[in-house]
Amino acid sequence: MENKKKLTTSWGAPVGDNQNSITAGHRGPTLIQDVHLLEKLAHFNRERVPERVVHAKGAGAHGYFEVTKDVSKFTKADFLSKVGKRTPMFIRFSTVAGELGSSDTVRDPRGFAVKFYTEEGNYDLVGNNTPVFFIRDAIKFPDFIHTQKRNPKTHLKNPNAVWDFWSLSPESLHQVTILFSDRGIPATFRHMHGFGSHTFKWVNAAGEAYWVKYHFKTEQGIANLAAETAAEITGTNPDYHIEDLHNAIENGDYPAWRLYVQIMPLADADTYRWDPFDVTKVWSQKDYPLQEVGRMVLNKNPENYFAEVEQATFSPGNFVPGIEASPDKMLQGRLFAYSDAHRYRVGVNHNLLPINRPRNDVNHYQRDGQMRFDTNGGGAVYYEPNSFSGPKETPENNIAPYEVTGSAASTAYSHDDHFTQAGDLYRLMSEEERARLVANIVAAMKPVERDDIKLRQIGHFLKADREYGTRVAEGLGLPLPVNA
């Protein structure tokens, strides 16, 4: 059947010849008046937006979230208001440290970012496949990520920087233990759990507040890759996880997760044995059992990777009524940093893009900026307060207050036990899992050039569990640190 679509320029004019540029005669030179050629080349030069500083490479999918248990006594969030309610959503999975062209099967945490298109605005839950993180204060985040990137002199990955930073930041030990365990390389994006990681606040219709942690449990079961298998796949198919997710959905094998939460009464934060806002620690499920909330199903692949996956923007600060921030210091920094990254990377009007645009009406007084491709508010009133029936605030949607005290100063968390939970995790592992953990750590630490860095890190392992540290030291051929 004849194709009746006319090729046009970006401004809609028909193109007469898309195979030959306009030249002075058969040999040229090319004429600058060939505006179609200039537009094609100029647009091509700008087809890549700056890649994400972290989580650069990823995969995405559309789906829905369905409430399966009544949690209305804990939160007034409308999309969680009743059993059976479905909310469309989009998810982006990713690695953390690598560039856009890096391998999917490296040892690295995986990003687990969910955008819920609720009737009260978009709610973003931007977490990882681990319940904890390497650091607990956002002021250390740029330094940490620098260690995961390339050496500015050699442009090579730098194990010296990685282990120097971790050995000088003992709060990282819990996450390091997870990273070098079997779960450090998931078999696929479908075969891993997801976590909000941070503590958040839920508020119910009566104004009562609770602290909450999110757990997405994969219905596919946990499956991981051995280091040797992952290395082989890296060399043969660096896009292995992206391909797996696409093919599963395309074949109708829709991945699903069950969402559970841990609920902590507000007052418990002052008496719990761990600071509940320290993202390097978990809450014991014996103390705060998992409570089911709903089920997430991914059933549609993106139509265009760039438009949806690459331009998708997530921020842990995108809340809806009934869900609020906690004093988690790492979360507090991310509330600013993520949206600011998108303003730089995609543009100040990134929330107007179809993949990010809320499904409900948006009414505000923001105007102008690059890539403003809606009506820009038309001729409506553009300031507030005003006398012209412009949108007004709704006091019932103020945040639920909680008391804060203390002097303004640069202060650390009051709890500094970074070893007990890492040791507990080590002791939960089977002998085979411990052997693989130690082998992975030893292989990663061998390239470190300075023994003092290795010994400092071994000291942390020893504090977590004597056997743990001893086996790492033996694997590196080093004596135990003095006074260990």
Automatic annotation (TrEMBL):
<protein>
    <recommendedName>
        <fullName>Catalase</fullName>
        <ecNumber>1.11.1.6</ecNumber>
    </recommendedName>
</protein>
<dbReference type="InterPro" id="IPR010582">
    <property type="entry name" value="Catalase_immune_responsive"/>
</dbReference>
<dbReference type="InterPro" id="IPR020835">
    <property type="entry name" value="Catalase_sf"/>
</dbReference>
<dbReference type="InterPro" id="IPR040333">
    <property type="entry name" value="Catalase_3"/>
</dbReference>
<comment type="similarity">
    <text>Belongs to the catalase family.</text>
</comment>
<dbReference type="GO" id="GO:0042744">
    <property type="term" value="P:hydrogen peroxide catabolic process"/>
</dbReference>
<dbReference type="Pfam" id="PF00199">
    <property type="entry name" value="Catalase"/>
</dbReference>
<feature type="binding site" description="axial binding residue">
    <location>
        <position position="338"/>
    </location>
    <ligand>
        <name>heme</name>
    </ligand>
</feature>
<keyword id="KW-0575">Peroxidase</keyword>
<keyword id="KW-0376">Hydrogen peroxide</keyword>
<keyword id="KW-0479">Metal-binding</keyword>
<feature type="active site">
    <location>
        <position position="55"/>
    </location>
</feature>
<dbReference type="GO" id="GO:0020037">
    <property type="term" value="F:heme binding"/>
</dbReference>
<dbReference type="GO" id="GO:0042542">
    <property type="term" value="P:response to hydrogen peroxide"/>
</dbReference>
<dbReference type="InterPro" id="IPR018028">
    <property type="entry name" value="Catalase"/>
</dbReference>
<feature type="region of interest" description="Disordered">
    <location>
        <begin position="1"/>
        <end position="26"/>
    </location>
</feature>
<dbReference type="GO" id="GO:0005737">
    <property type="term" value="C:cytoplasm"/>
</dbReference>
<feature type="active site">
    <location>
        <position position="128"/>
    </location>
</feature>
<dbReference type="InterPro" id="IPR024708">
    <property type="entry name" value="Catalase_AS"/>
</dbReference>
<dbReference type="InterPro" id="IPR024711">
    <property type="entry name" value="Catalase_clade1/3"/>
</dbReference>
<dbReference type="InterPro" id="IPR011614">
    <property type="entry name" value="Catalase_core"/>
</dbReference>
<keyword id="KW-0349">Heme</keyword>
<dbReference type="InterPro" id="IPR002226">
    <property type="entry name" value="Catalase_haem_BS"/>
</dbReference>
<dbReference type="GO" id="GO:0046872">
    <property type="term" value="F:metal ion binding"/>
</dbReference>
<keyword id="KW-0408">Iron</keyword>
<feature type="domain" description="Catalase core">
    <location>
        <begin position="8"/>
        <end position="392"/>
    </location>
</feature>
<dbReference type="GO" id="GO:0004096">
    <property type="term" value="F:catalase activity"/>
</dbReference>
<dbReference type="Pfam" id="PF06628">
    <property type="entry name" value="Catalase-rel"/>
</dbReference>
<keyword id="KW-0560">Oxidoreductase</keyword>
